Amino acid sequence: MARMKIPAAFAAIMLLGGCSFVSDTLFPSLSGDDPQPRSATNPRPPATDPAKPAQAAAAPAPVAGQPPQLGTSTFEPPAVTPGSATGTVVGAKVNQMRGELGRLQSNIQQHNSGLQALRQQTVAHAQRYHGTVAAINSRLQVGTTPGNPILVAQWSTAQTQLDGVARDIAEMNSLANRVASDSSTASYLLETTRATYGLAGAVDEDHRQLSVLEDEVNRTVVLIDRLLNELSDDINRQSAYLGGERKNLTTLSVAIKNGELLGSSLANRAYDVQPYQSRPGRGAVPQAAQTGQRRPLVVIRFDRPGVEFEQALYTAVSRALERRPQAGFDLVAVAPASGSAADVARATNAARRNAESVMRSLASMGLPASRVTMSAGTSGDAQTNEVHIYIR
Predict the structure, then answer these.
(1) Kind of pairing, strands 386-391 and 298-301?
(2) CA-based angle 66:69:72, to the nearest 5?
(3) DSSP 379
(4) Which residues make Cβ contacts (< 8 Å) with residue 8, sequence separation at least 6?
(5) Which of 155, 170, 173, 315 has a CA 20 to 30 Å removed from the CA of 292?
């Protein structure tokens, strides 16, 4: 095969076009057979100039962030029914417990007010955060300079606003602890009310008032249980939301560094899937699988310093995860097999460093490390150091 040198700009174009083609026809070729050649009648996708900011339009549209879904219930206990003095010891005990129930219900009203205020505060923090992120994404969508200081400052603002949501979660946990303490008090009051029926020296009016008090304590216990359940749901939803948005912020920092839009974190593409468990013996990929028997999802050629591969890499991996959320990926550092043994060793070390750089990029995009394996090999067909990414 005649060898020819490919200019750097053309190589970058081939990388981007290859990512689009492989991801579109990825799954029919997973068996390991050589893919069918493209028919001459099928037009090639138009090549794009990687130097132009419009290249960012190839990334999937960012998912519009939404504030965490919080409960809407209110928890207002009914007023305590007043009673009349009967002059008995049991009557005095009933009156004392009635006062304890009133104090307990006053606490519940305070907890309810605190919960509603926290909900409004959380939504306000989340809305301000999403407004800042939307401004960053809009700027990245049309293209901007790498490491734009304006976007860096906005990213810091978004992180501070998201920290406000984290503080809201901490305050809600503190509120849940106070409600749990009142729940114990309510349970004790209910047991005491029921035990009072067994006291001697009561008149019929005492038992009538005691029955009313027992019903009201029961309703208060149920109300506290509902409050605790809804608090738990709010905390769990907010915690999941916060974790997902922190991953999105990490990926957004990569996009700002490159000056082009990527999208949401890859970790959020499969939030409901268990982490990938690699099978024994899958750590090393046979050389035959590296270079011929499997079709790579992405081939990155490091034929010049500062190869920009993040946009094409994110697009290809993102599309693969949309179709197979449980997919794992094999990174293979491929070095040219030509030259002396020393030349091959130097090229292999450089290829490994390139593969480690690609792996760090995938981690910053949110792809869990447990889904990625890395190996190295040589190929007589390679003209320069390459990194092949295979899906499994």
Answers:
(1) antiparallel
(2) 140
(3) E
(4) 303, 304
(5) 315
Domain ranges of the chain: 8-31+276-391, 89-258
Q: Quick check: 378 and 348 in contact, CB under 8 A?
A: yes
Residue 203 three-state SS: coil
CATH class of the domain defined by 8-31+276-391: alpha beta
User: Can you say whether the dihedral through the CA atoms of 340, 344, 345, 349 is positive or negative?
Assistant: positive
CA distance 55 to 118: 42
Place of tokens 């990512």: 19
Residues 257 and 132: their CA atoms lie apart, in Å, by 17
Query: Amino acid identity, residue 151?
Result: L
User: How many whole angstroms separate alpha carbon 390 and alpha carbon 392?
Assistant: 7
In the 8-state DSSP scheme, what is residue 147?
A: T
- The pLDDT tens digits along the chain (392 residues) read 344 443 333 334 334 333 333 333 333 333 333 333 333 334 444 444 433 333 333 333 333 456 667 888 888 888 899 988 888 999 999 999 999 999 999 999 999 999 999 999 999 999 999 999 999 988 988 888 888 999 999 999 999 999 999 999 999 999 999 999 999 999 999 999 999 999 898 999 999 999 999 999 999 999 999 999 999 989 988 888 888 888 888 888 888 988 887 777 776 654 333 332 333 333 344 443 444 567 888 899 998 888 888 888 888 888 888 888 888 889 899 988 888 888 888 888 888 888 888 888 888 887 877 888 888 888 888 888 899 999 88
Give residue 98's identity as a one-letter amino acid code: R
Distance (Å, whole) CA 272 – CA 249: 20
Query: What secondary structure, in 3-state letters, does 311-377 show?
Result: HHHHHHHHHHHHHCCCCCEEEEEEEECCCCHHHHHHHHHHHHHHHHHHHHHHHHCCCCHHHEEEEEE
Contact 304, 249 (CB under 8 A): no
Distance CA 154, CA 159 (A): 9
Contact indicator for 383, 345 with CB cutoff of 8 Å: no
Taking the model in full, what pTM does it have? 0.60
Nearest to 154 by CA among 266, 258, 256, 261: 256
